[in-house]
Fold:
Amino acid sequence: MPGRQIRHGAIHGIGPAQAAALKRHGLHTAGLLAAMDESVVCRILGGRPAAP
Structure:
């Protein structure tokens, strides 16, 4: 798979559990994560979108 794999600690705020959740949803690289809609990422990680 092209791109660097997401590791816990590689992205600020992404720990082992969050990295595993992202991988379960097919988000294996930071580029794929960045391309996702914020609301989808929030549903995966259990957060909520930032205020505008």
About this structure: The mean pLDDT is 81. The chain has one domain: 1-45. Helices lie at 16-24, 30-35, 38-45.
